[in-house]
Prior knowledge:
The protein is an alpha/beta fold. About 25% of the residues lie in helices and about 25% in strands.
Amino acid sequence: MRVCLLASGSRGNSTLIEVDGCRLLIDAGLSGIETERRLSTVGLAGEDLHGILVTHEHHDHVSGIGPLARRYNLPVYIDRQTHAALPKLGKIENLQYFSTGETFSVQNLVISPFSTTHDAVNPVGFTIQSNEGKIGFATDLGMPTRLVADQLKDCRVLVLEANHDEQMLQEGPYPWDLKQRISSRHGHLSNNQSCSLLEDICWSGLEALFLAHLSEENNCPDLTRKLFSKTVVDCGHAPEIIIGRQSQASFCFEASSAMVS
Ligand SMILES: [Zn+2]
Ligand SMILES: [Zn+2]
């Protein structure tokens, strides 16, 4: 199993997961060329991919989907309403509609899309289950609902949004209405909200925690790392903590096929 945040932040998001020989992108918010460049840093090329999963229609998650899907004839797994909200996506030969709350399979992986309260037409997070364990993916969350916490239990690898520090957001340069949108039930999770969610779902089998979609203006990676390190220690666990970055691919987490616990 390998997981790498190829890019993370408000200017582009894309995550590589590789499980049991199946390599998927979750979102493709960089250009096709830049996505391929970052894939090459983990030894992969576009033709090595088996599909793209789409969380929601915002620009920072979708701009590379059309070029990549067309260049490599990749299936795109997407909600029907989300697809309808992307009139500029262009023709995708292999569109696979999923329904939120219903699992679907890609090779040996069982994928479960679940709802989030972000301000998009039908935004989702995903869990990906296989005989190598469970990966949870939840960014652009809006608020940490009970449903999200339940979905993210028992993960071996977790990608969790930690968008902003509440004080930095309030005191920062954004206009008032944007501050309201980000901190609303339909915006992004603050570090503190994300830590509270993590307290509910942290367990001994969690091996890697990726922190994603950090704001470059309203967050600080060092502060975030400290806060989450303390949270996992307080919970009695010690997953590796990896911070997603905008300008380059993150550390690539690799786990053996056998689960630790
Ligand atoms: Zn979004
Ligand atoms: Zn986003």
